[in-house]
Fold these 4 entries.
Entry 1:
Amino acid sequence: MTQTALRDEPRTQAPPERRVATVSGVERLGAYRLITALDASGPADPRPGQFYMLATEEGWGGGADERPYLPRAFSYARARPTAGGVELDFLLESVGPGTARLAALEPGEGLALVGPLGVGFRPPRAGARPVVVGGGIGVAPLLCLEQALSERSTLLLGFRTAAHARAAALFAGEPALATDDGSVGRRGLVTDLLRERLAAGPDAAVYACGPPAMLESVRALCAERGVPGQLALESGMACGFGACFGCVVPTRDGFVRLCLDGPVLDANRLDAAWIEGAAH
Amino acid sequence: LTVELCGVHLGGPVLNGSGTFDAIAARRAFGDALLERFPFHAFVSKTITVEPRQGNPPPRLWETPAGLINSIGLPNKGLRGFLASDLPQLAELPVPLVVSVMGFSRDELATLVARVGNRDEVAMIELNVSCPNVETGLVMGADPAETARAVERVRALTAKPLIVKLTPNADDPAAVAAAAEGAGAAAVSLVNTLKGMALHPITREPWLGGVTGGLSGPAVRAIALEQVRSVARRVAIPVVGMGGIATGRHAADFMSAGAACVAVGTESFRDPAAGRRVAAELAALGRGRRSRATHEVRSLSPSG
């Protein structure tokens, strides 16, 4: 890749070491936790779609099966520069020993982090109308994206249940909702909403983050309609900065490290085969 | 705390394990601050092969108690790609460069050593012998005679020091080390990862796309320490010790066991500056050794 291309990528570089931020707020939000930490020495301008590797300063390890050991990758949900540093919001759900420990954080505790990492979302081409599609915990990076987009965006969000859909209240705009059980919004998939939106007009620029099956549907819809899409993918990561080569995703140009060339990838770099390793 | 390794002057004793730090990727993530605060005293490249490799299909990682199994499969640009695009960038690092190479035959290994060995940017070459020889089916580094033949084949092709990276998946790593020494290796490094696997919790099939992988991290440290000690007692050439080193005290343990230098690997995944921290802790430990002894014995013992 040329240096010119690298300069253009939406990436704020991270300090080359782990540092400790201080948890300043913990909010229960239905099925999720919203953790706020004051990062006194990190950059104040992470780009929407970038992520941080997170671990607790104390008590990381010794959970189920003596885990966690590795830090966990999380997109930041919002960043607010303050006099004492940047306040970072992370949306998380307890699904294993690492996320359980993070979800148990209390104000005053230390949050060890490396970041911001990866490449974030690019602005839409002139005249395109942003269509922002989120599924579950994948709504996190779309919160700061919504703030950063100058165009008013269409928000389409999908959740399992009403408890998960509480996260929709974090958006400034008014999202159209779908839930698996129909307890809030439309019963069905968020990609049903996207299909209808794309049928209404070809001027869309799609931004999406969510589980692999959802992103694959979004990718296929973008391809079918000839609409540009940017997908924020997720993968298990050991390091987050290109060292371990563990987070690769198959693209049309071969495997790419999601932590380095992603997590946001143009949808047209992927074909349907990408999901085979991701759906594990 | 400067050291000399195979005649190469280093600012300290902490290297990285091959394949655990990509300095080119890290410079993209961290910018020039990485060079100003570079975490290692010498940089060991990811292993290169003659032909480009995509590596193994995902998933490639599995977290274990205090460790990690990886099944990466040596993705790299191949010799030509490395020389053309990676080597010029690695030459900008502020520390000596060690290039790790792997051949699937002795001829391939010879090609790699000859082509890498005549580049001024390269201080040393590490031979990754943890792969099957396609001619014999034997893992080169698991067998003393295979290892000796590989080193003998390439020894005269370069004036650069050759480090043989030993695999712990051998009956007698010290015998392999002695064979490498006898064939002209300037140093040995160990341990590589320990072979391991994990099963998918629902399908009961192997989790990793490559089926098996290599275990690293604190989980392997006690095994690595024993192997480093047994190798260091057997050979006169320097030993680079690694395996789960995460603190200065761990590094001091490996050096007390006979290592001339140490390498930090998996701990860098948790903190990109781990090498720098380990070096600082190691230096501080040297200064305060006596006053710490009593409470440290107590706290580290099973009764602590």
Entry 2:
Amino acid sequence: MANESERLQEDIQDLQAVRRVLAGEKDAFRELVRRYTDPLYSMCYRYLGSAEEAEEAVQDIFRKAYGALDSFDPKRRFFTWLYTIGMNHVRSLGRSRAREMRRQAVSYDELPQAPAGDADSEKPDLSAIRNAAGDAIHAALQQLREEHRRAFVLRHVQDLSVQQVAEILGIPENTVKTHVRRARSELREILRQWGWG
Amino acid sequence: LIDEHWVPEGQPIELPEEIRSHAAECASCAPQVEAVHRMLSGTELQVRAPEGLAERIADAVLESDAEAESGVPHGKEGRPEARESPRRRGPRRAERRTSGTARAPAWAKRVPQWAQLAAAAVVLVVGAVVVTSAVIGSGAQSDSVVVHLSLEAPEAEAVSVVGDWNDWDPKAHVMKDENGDGVWEVRIEVSKDREYEYQFLLNGDKWIPDPNAPLHVSDGFGGKNSVLNI
């Protein structure tokens, strides 16, 4: 994640790209897509739960952003504006499904295991461990309450500040803090249910 | 491990040496330790997009824009074509209106959208009765009724109603503004003796409660769901 001065530099570049697109240089939109595909994909993947859905969602988000570009207020940061569109989009996609996900407890037996060998004493393969750990994190995040997951994903997956998360979600900063805190409590409980720790 | 090392958010954690050394040698514990460590410390939770995704997306967005652009007149007088919103390409809402129907008033351009909606809902008065939802008949089933829902949103380009009865599916009940008066309407069939939560979804991404519903509850996202009680 960029530090604040890098962030400000990116804000300026974003604004310049937006202005160029609106002035007719549409290819400048590619700059914005290149800069924000990774973070948006990360958010969508953690939120929606599948690579395929995440790819589709990121494309839809950019499509919406492109369509609404002339309504972008240059006093705002482009990335918070884009994230707001993105979060509204995944919220729309995931809303009904999220309820079901919360009800479907993932048991420890269903969790991915590192395919590193039969014996516990065998030295594990690092990339397999990281993949399995990533899958486990994913399974745990999917079980969070939706509003808590949104705040947690923006705060910790996207590494945004509380203020930025509040702006994107349109909720007070204290509510963001509460949601993140509750997400962490839920994660702790999920891990405990899996028998981890 | 969890209780002992659950630290305030964003702070790195240092796992005990015995755990780290065991995980380094144990194939079944290693992923657990790795996952717990990352979740506890809130680090390394990002994932990278597949290679080439950004270019594919940019191509798709710009290509669809070019297709849309080719179907409409360009270079509108007084306003450079290039500054027009890509979303508004194609038949504009104002152009689709037939003669005799009102365009959005000038004040609407100066007032925030939420305020327009609230004001518009108040305007939606027939006699002395504010109409936003009403049971208009029996449904196909003996235990169901047909409800008419409406929302005045002249600036919206698409409106749907999402709620418990359609599993919050934005495509299930798309509202229509057939006469171009800015009032979006839909009829839904729901079971009697039930309470439903719902919202309107504008342009696919803006959620608003029914401004005139008699009851609202928290939607769990910092907003309000309207309540339809049949």
Entry 3:
Amino acid sequence: MTYEGVPALVETVEAHGETTLVVDRARLVEAGMHLRDAEGFNFLSDITAADYLGWGGQGVSGYIGTASGRDLNMPMTQGHQSLPKPKPKRFAVNYHLLSVSERPRRVRLQVWLDDGEPVPTVVPVWPTADWHEREAFDLMGITFSGHPNLKRLLLDDDWDGHPLRKDYPIGGEPVRFSEAE
Amino acid sequence: VAAISDRQRAPIYEGTRIPQPIPTVLRVTQELRDTGDVMTVNFGPNHPSTHGVLRLIVDLFGEDVVGLEAVVGYLHTGFEKNMEQKTWWKAITYPERIDYLAFQNNELVFVLAIEKLLELEIPPKASWMRTCLCELNRIHSHLVWLGTSALELGAISMFWYCFREREMVLDLFELVAGARMHTRYFQAGGLAEDIPRGFFLEARKFVDWFPHALDDYEAMLTRNRIWLERTERLGLLSAADAIALGQSGPVLRASGVDWDLRKVEPYLSYDAVDFDVPVYPEGDVYARFRVHMDEMLQSNRIIAQCLDRLEAMEGEPWIADDRKVVLPPREELHTSMESLIHHFKIVTEGYRVPEGEVYVAVESPRGELGCYVASDGGPRPWRVKFRAPSFVALEATATCMSDALIADMIAIVGSLDTLMGEVDR
């Protein structure tokens, strides 16, 4: 199965038996329409936003080599140090598509963006995107241009910041003391 | 109890009724608003029949629901952020608490994602036992759904009957894992412990008894006049709308779409068991009730087949032999230096999972439960995201409720089988 006909296709990645289609952010809706109408991906399972700030920085205990595959029976495999492949931009938004049909299959549509850059909404393509996009806006701070009702979903309307970002402090909710009021 | 209803097996409406421009909000028309008779009522979040803490802002015109907006987030606990701070091994305890009725299915989906990244094969015994427990879990979840939904519509005795069998399922979980809920019995690589002695005997007792219990439920509800009046032709959702709104599981199958991930994308041992997928085309509350009832019977069939297979696997390994991921057998720690080191490393630092991103989906009792995991090759997940079927089911409330009465709201919200822990995560 090839997806060469998808408009605005930047890159196709095959890994772990899954296909990822990286598309140009500005033409996302066009790509979505094509996948829905021409390829039969009528079902949007999920939208996941991920923050890659600090990706590839040294973790607590380094990294294991994975480029040549991971062979547990080989001694010293654990000791190789290598960094993960760099990401093109800070945020990724993944659209997990499914074809509910005689020929079930899945594909991941992916766009990349930096902080403050808007992603066009896919609510006209898949209405279920409504809450998924609101969740990504709420927790990750990604703006979806053209969304009919873009406001916080899970957190309070006056919440400060976006908790799933990597620079959001853990346990960082300020304590209010009574004498301060 | 065959041929229970003489309903016409056909969709009640076709095409689309999804509200525009916001698919999840039903807006009052200006014409109606101008009459001055529209009253806005706040329903929830603390209400016994909202299955947790769901808040609905309802506009009423007389008794008709003319406007609706669902407000969620009262149970948001930041599971996904928390999991990023834990090692893979410790993070397995979190998904169980997201959907606290389908805990084993939630645990399973995260463990499957880890195994997919690690490219770890599990032994057949682990695969069959997982299948068995997931189906017991489905029965458990459906029983709580049936009991509480019927209770909300006034059928109090249903609640006691359902919880009677639910206790039997929980006793089985206790026998296997020591805990009644949140068992944490699945490990990356297989199971945490071997199947305990006595499990098969007790599980067989349940499997033999459960169809009789289902007959009791059918006798109480299926042709009950009050139940029919309160569930038939209500909360309608067509097949086209269900797919557009991302519905899955019983809600999708009650809208006439023959779709079950256990059949179309078999995982674990589902390709080797014999079972049917119940599909009802009407798309109303009663159809969802029928799907749940039939699924419980099918789950019982699957469990019986799993038990047959498992009994023949006495003495086989229950977890993969991969010492970089799996804890060494306890008795080796006293004699083997290497095992002690492995044990120490896995418990303190955690195992590392190769770089990559995967999306794994399983058929939880509520529908497609997905888990997206991204790893940077380190000992902790970089990003975990759950595709919660209840979250998506709540998006359909505005469509389902578009010509409902206020008294039907409870039945409709209940039929979507939402669980707020999973919605808010």
Entry 4:
Amino acid sequence: MNMDKSMKIRKSDVVLIAVCLLLALLAVLAMFLKRENGARVGVYVDGELTAVYPLDTDTTVTLTAANGSFNTLVIEDGRADVTDAGCPDKLCVNMHSIAYAGETITCLPNKTVIKIEGGAPEGVDVY
Amino acid sequence: MCTELKTKRMTTMAMLTAVAMILSYVEAMLPSIGIPGVKMGIANIAVVFALYRLGWREAVAVSLVRVVLMALLFTGVGPMLYSLAGAALSLVLMGLMKKSGIFSPVGVSVAGGVGHNAGQVLLAMWMLETQEIIYYLPALAISGVISGVLIGLAGGLLISRMKNVSGY
């Protein structure tokens, strides 16, 4: 059976794929080069900052979300990770641990975002 | 349009929606590769097929009905919002790409794959008021391109081979 010609992959498709991949790789590279070490772990529930922990102190905390569910945050060796959660999909548990400023672990069901904050000490206006 | 054609069209849409739901279900049973948001989206083979064989509005209907029904049956309303945001951006982009006439189903579905992930990231940024979530986008875009290529290849094959079978 002959393949319909209009269904075959074209040069424009290849260009589109290449451009998409190139832009994405450049963005990944830029993020990699720009990264700075984090100092604190901020916990945001529903967009509100609810807690801050220093990244250089090992600790384990259970974060309670607005919907009654929880996320277990472990800070160890300068990295933050979510090791357990009450949400059904456990995507946040599967995410890699984070250590660099701006990196986040997101739990959509619990509306919880764990974010590494940059080098400037807390409470100091850097701008 | 005469009634017989209209009925045939509607039945085909219903069948494609059912196929899309089965594909979502099958995909949910496959082991995840462990990165959040990274998946094949094989249900979109049915959406791409609907886009080429029936039209943009029909593809929108198949995709949105599938998302809503799957959410009501399995995942719930919260995740549905993210699926809807992804599906909506994906459908808009695929419609525009197809209309441009310069891409095959592969290019169209690559735009769909990237649109799917971008829509979800944008909604998450807005809902959680956290701009940093955009850092996930490059990695998710790469995943969207890869699934888009595979879905486009499968969809293109299906579209040309099903021509003689279904009459569409």
